[in-house]
Amino acid sequence: MRVAAYARVSTKKKEQLDSLENQTRFFEEYAKSRGYTLVAVYADEKSGRSIQKREGFQQLLADGEKKLFDMVLFRDATRLARNTVDSLQSFRKLIDCGITLHFINIGFTATRENEFQLTLLSAVSQGEGEAISSRARFGYLQSAKKGRVPTRAYGYDHITPYELAINEEEAAVVKRIFDMYVNQGYGVRKITRILIEEGIKTKNGGLWCPRTVSGILSNELYIGKLVSHKTTTTSYLDRKRNRVPEDSSIVFTRPEYAIISEDMFRKAQQLLAERKEQYRRTGMRVSSQNNFRETLINKTFVARM
Question: Residue 5: pLDDT above 50?
Fold first, then answer.
């Protein structure tokens, strides 16, 4: 019998990629022990929430329609997408092509005749995902209430889950970013270019991008305020995040973490809001230097008249 197998890990962390290699080896040994011909092992390294975003699984479906194999092996039900509708629609495509689905850990083979059991299996997988997500949110909230600090924040060294120390070299860059933005009138993109040109690296050792610079400019940690629980997910499946009311956020005052003054931070927020509004209205990115150049151009034009 020609068989294909599907393997998935949730992240690109090294230990998870090792897991992917282990799963592939497991399928090879399983097929060999039963005299199957293993045609291919399809794999994804992304979240299991949606099948539509998994290239490996989409290729499996496409090859299934070409009847390149007779059975698909899954190591366990958690390798399904944790979305019952997604799972059933995709599996029906395979079953309609005459392909059976075998879940090794429970010894269950899905065919046209037992779709009800497959529905239950998919529902259990989605329920497991929702339970894991709920526990993770609860754990995050409890840690936030105890004052947990970010594990990676530019300008700081992570000491313990509840303690940071200012990194003086990075803190100097933070101060310079605020100075360039507030006092020198540079825009976020100009600041990004300067940091890259000068060979200054991000916390991860990579190149700066405008989003990272904007994140620093709007992070209250730099004035000694540790703010958590700013957003929450609407549901497990769509993962959309909504802002929570400001009074629902969890705030700790940690003056020892302050790198810039509250006045400097307030001016930065005002500029960010003004430039965001101007961009929304005009579609043009504006900085103080742009305004200065426009003023010179206008004055020159008037003088010539």
Answer: yes
